[in-house]
Structure formats: C-alpha cells, structure tokens
Design a protein that fits this description.
The protein has 282 residues and is mainly alpha-helical. It has twelve helices and four strands; from the N terminus they run αααβααααβαββαααα. The radius of gyration is 31 Å and the shape is flat. The protein starts with 7 loop residues before the first helix and ends with a helix.
Length: 282
Amino acid sequence: MPAPKPILEEADVQPWRWRGYPSFAKWMASDNDFLVLRRFGSLHARVALMLQDQLAWLEQELEKEDDACKRMPKGHSGTFRFESQWRRQRILGAVTFTLQKYNHFVLEYSQQKALPDASTHQVENVKNWMNNANGQIIDKEAEFINHEGDLMAVVAHEKTPLRRLMDRYDIFDYFRCCQTGLDKRTYDQFSTTVTTNEAFIHQYARFFTIVIGLVFIIAPFWSSPLLTAVQDSLQIRLVIVTWLVVLFGVFMAIGTLATPFNTVGIITVYAAWLAMIMRLSL
C-alpha cells in the first residue's frame, strides 16, 4: 500500500521525512549542471600507492624465489606446468590478482581525472539548493559540496567563455524560449527550478557564431566605398584593418572552443586575407 501524500504545509515542516534524498536526487538528475560529485582525489592516490607497494613487495619476493631456485641442484625456472616451488606459484597467483586490481583501478581513475572540475556556477547551484532545503539532507552528508577543490562535473560539457559568462549571470532565465519548463511546487519538490533547453541554446549559439563570422567576412567588402574616399590615408586603412583583426580575435577567444594555437593561426589567416581585400579595394 503506497504511503499517503501529506499536505504541502506538513512537507515544509518535515522535509527530511517527505522529501530528503528522493527530492535531492530528482533535482540533481534534472540538469547536467546540477550533477556535481566529489573526486576523492587523495583517497584514489592513496589506494593506487597501496596497490603499487603490494606489487613491489610481491616482485621482490618473486625475485627471491628465482634466486633460491638457481641455488637448488634440481632447480628449474623454465616451466609453469611442472613448477616444483609451491611458494613461487602462490606469489605469481597473488601478482596476477593484484596486478588486475591495480590496472583496473588506475585506468578507471585516469578516466575520472579526465572529467572537468565543477565550475563555480555548478557548485553554487548545489549550495543554493542546500541552503533552501531546510534540512532535507543532514549537515554531515551535505558537507561534500564544501570540498570545492575536490569536486567534478560528472557530465563533461565544454562551454565557451561567453556561454559560461551567460550561465554565471543566468542570462537565459529571462527568455522563455530557452527554458524547458518550471517544476510545480509539490510535497516532494520544495521549490521551483527553471532548467534551460540545452538543445535550443546549442542551435542558437551555432547560428549566432555563423552570423558573426559572416559579418567579419562581408564587412571588408562593404568598406570599399569608405576606402575609396580615403584612399590616400594610410592611417585610416590601418585603423580599419587593426580593429577588424582585434574584434575577430576577441570573437575567437570568447565565442569558440578553439585552442590558443588554432586561434592564433585562424587570426593570422584572417589578417592576411583582410590585407589582400583591402589592397584590392583601393
């Protein structure tokens, strides 16, 4: 028989009873920016060091058995099937088991380390939920969000600096078309949470990037009449080229995910193309 649903006021008085982790998990799973967990970096490193030391000790013990075999008149190190030294067999078995654990652990940890650190915006999302939760999660278990140097974003989603800035100041919250919906306040969900439509924003960002790129390409052609009027002024032409290159560089830096090396290369090509267009316009 399902548990009775309380009235809203009762859920507000005892949120740890009616909401708690079910509400927190539902909220955290509703958006990638809410899914923030601890890395436990020092614990991972400590376990890796422990497994490494176990393997080092087993390696030393195996070398001792190999040396002992050399001193035995009937010692034989050229067979596994007819191994006569039972201790060496046991050590190799332990090496196999520990090596599997070590390799599996290191590979999994390297994959976890590749996940990005949780951004300030993501950490603040969870902290705000905790502050407004009125004790849904006990303090000891809510402390994980205060380990800011040890938090990771579980879903790796790289964003441009411009997009991170817009997220930081909740720019998209002012546009209904960018929202996926508004959760109603019920007994199992203590507050309203507006989530963004990532698919729509991604398509809008692509369209915006294409439009800005076309502006930088078309602008030099439309500057031909101006250049014709000031064709004897080298300084004015240099100012136009300089400003276009600077603005294009700013756009590449904050509006794209290009690496610094690729950014410099693209800006160089654009500057060379721009210089050629300007000369053809004279």
